[in-house]
Amino acid sequence: MRSDATNTKKESVILRTRKDYRPRVFAQVVDEVGRAIYKAFKAERKLDKGLTQAALAKAINKDPAFVNRVLTGGKNMELKTVADILGALGYEMKISTKRIEPMPNPSKNEASVTSASSIRATPQTIPSRFEAYEHV
């Protein structure tokens, strides 16, 4: 019995530590999905000059302002909405994962290292897609 309690305690420590990664992973997923949609929209717009944000909004039964927020990176979407948008544009999405490298532990001598619990996704930590692409 004692070994089960020990294993449960170890697992909870691991999960608690991994919880610190969630804001970073969430920001990355939202950004990558936004980039994929943005690239698909731009590529299709080159082929079809009539493609507008309003036309895409109509195709997915959403408000044009919603599509604008999606294309400018200001919208967290349900997976169904992502599929609707990419499907309307004629695209599919491939998703890959990789193991996260351990975050450094702050030491007493390194004041510049931030603790994992205080990391927040900001424009400075997660680059905007508009650093690499022109505005829609």
Task: Outline the secondary-structure elements.
Elements: H1 2-19, H2 22-47, H3 53-59, H4 64-71, H5 79-89
Helix pairs in contact: 2-5, 3-4
What keywords describe this structure?
mainly alpha; disordered C terminus; elongated
What do you see in this structure?
The chain has helices spanning 2-19, 22-47, 53-59, 64-71, 79-89. It is mostly helical and 136 residues long. Helix 2 packs parallel to helix 5 and helix 3 (53-59) crosses helix 4. 7% of the residues are buried.
Beta-strand content: under 5%
Percentage of residues assigned to helices: 40-55%
**DSSP helix count?**
5
Q: Could you tell me the mean pLDDT?
A: 75
Largest sheet properties: none
CA gyration radius, whole angstroms? 20 Å
Distance from first to last alpha carbon: 61 Å
How many beta-strand runs?
0
What's the order of the H and E elements? HHHHH
Structural class: mainly alpha
Low-confidence residue ranges: 108-136
Cα shape: elongated
